[in-house]
Amino acid sequence: MKKTLLATACIAFGALSTPALADLTVAIAGPMSGQYASAGDQIRKGAEMAIADINARGGVLGEKLKLEIGDDACDPKQAVSVANTMVNRNIVFMHGHWCSSSTIPASDVYNESDILMATVSTNPQVTERGLKNVFRIMGRDDQQGLVAGDYLATKFKGKKIAVLDDKSAYGKGLADEIAKAMTAKGAKPVMRESITAGEKDYSGIVTKLKQAGVEVLAYGGYHTEVALILRQAQQIGLQLTVMGGDTMTNSELVTAAGAASDNVMFTFSPDPRKNPTAAPIVEKFRAAKIEPEGYVMYAYAAMQLFEQTANQAKSTKYSALEKTMRNGTFKTVIGDLSFDAKGDQKAPGFVVYQWKDGKYDYAK
Amino acid sequence: MAYALQQLINGLTLGSMYGLIAIGYTMVYGIIGMINFAHGDIFMVSAFIAVTAFTLLAAADVSSIPLALTFVLIVSIFFTSAYGWAVERIAYRPLRGSTRLAPLISAIGMSIFLQNTVQLTQGARVKPIPPVIEGGFEVWSTPDFTVQVGWSQLLIIVITVIMMFAFTWLITQTPFGRQQRSCEQDRTMASLLGINVDRTISFTFMLGASLAAVAGVMVTVYYGVIDFYIGFLAGIKAFTAAVLGGIGSLPGAMLGGLLIGLIESFWSAYLWAEYKDVATFAILCLVLMLRPSGLLGRPEVEKV
Lengths: 364, 304
Fold this sequence. Notes:
The complex is a heterodimer. Helices cover about 45% and strands about 15% of the residues of chain A. Chain A is an alpha/beta fold. By secondary structure, chain B is mainly alpha-helical. Chain B has helices at about 1-30, 40-60, 65-90, 100-120, 150-175, 175-185, 185-190, 195-225, 230-245, 250-270, 275-290; strands at about 125-130, 135-140, 145-150, 225. Chain B is globular, with a radius of gyration of 20 Å.
């Protein structure tokens, strides 16, 4: 009982003391430590640069921005505790979390406390639960299949296309979406099968593809299996073009598959560095010895999104911010952002890339 | 028909590798009556040694493929048999003469130990190497299908055949082979007749490990991608092959390996590839129901 009282007193004291702070507090959260720490590092660098720039312009509504950083290590339990800490620090905006499995439980905490958030997590469930405070500045997993399926149906019209997956939640989900999108466009896959990830021998299925006269393979799964399939296809003299998902960005694919990796295409978020309006910011990052790759520009854009929303709303109250963000269009370094009723981006978040000589670029 | 021939070649390649690993299981079982569950991981270690050796050669600018392969094979066999010896010396020999379960658990422990050590020292990510032997040749061309054999597939089959002959000669014709067989029949009697049983057992472990090392190099060359977990699946399949062929029987292990390779490739060729493993193990159950000691196994005779 005593402890509860003490805790309540502390919280009350904390709540009382906040209005004394002149700064507006915004936050980022993600894996600052652990296996995915490199992504957390990118987010931090992007957000710090953005806040420095915004404060140099005079801040938001006359107040300087202050950045809080939360580390969830991509662990859902830690994510919830980070979210509670952030609520106690009275943040007005959250950019995060990074892992979908962290974003989903944390978003409930922010929702209860009326805190607006913009995330890069791609799992459809992030915006499918009717939470009004959640916005997403990246594509959704299920849009990848749509983009890939449409591309296959138009670019490889009349060719035989097979759809394969690795039975994983991610791989099967993606492959199902691709097959659905292709069929909708009138290009029905000639074969729809699954393989077991983690095995090394796929010569059986590769020979089957050759027998069926398949030229294009849409694959839901990871890059390791694609490298194996390509190598084994080459052994028996089968030329395959592969269309995969965002996991194909891994350069191990090129080491393992050799020259055959030039036939691999995949869907991935547009590279914000290629955005002409972002050029000055890209320069600025490079001058500071930071390569604005991965999530750096997304973090920068999230802070710009908050700045413009608050300025247009002329308030930092949740209800005003939420309404403005949902209805407005915002110019950021990753392009113009506008959102639908669920909080997803209106523009499709994926483009088709192709590997070429160990690098990937937009497919022609 | 051409399609079936291509699948036959695929199955033989895969089966050869299972067979080479299976011999390690069957030999150890034959001589000390235990299942060496760490054998799959010995195979995994050999693949890592092969990748390291290939990387060293690439750094030293060796471009002759036959030379490189011979070097990698020798290095991998040497270090892997050292691993095989050490595993036996550390984890099994002190437990000889204790209950049957003790070395079994110790073997599982060894398997986890090797897996985790490699994971921690080499990283959990896959290790790819660039294609070593590329291309192949056409065997038979029909209007709707061209049968093509990769050079590396051919190499695997040829090396397996050579290993099998060398091995049969070693077991049937040499003094070591005689000692090995006598230990298998009766360890006490063999030691009474002046055979160093411990040394023979150590040597058996090293031989099994060398064959696994050959398979490890082949896997590295053929697939080009390895990780710390490959020993698990390959070990289970090879163990199954040994049981299918009749555990304790050397030709049985090879036959079992080839059969499993063929079942896998023909099943995925004509039926549903995703049910390949279900089929393999269902056939194993069926064979064991009809012939409990495996295809070439002799029924165990109770020694009185």
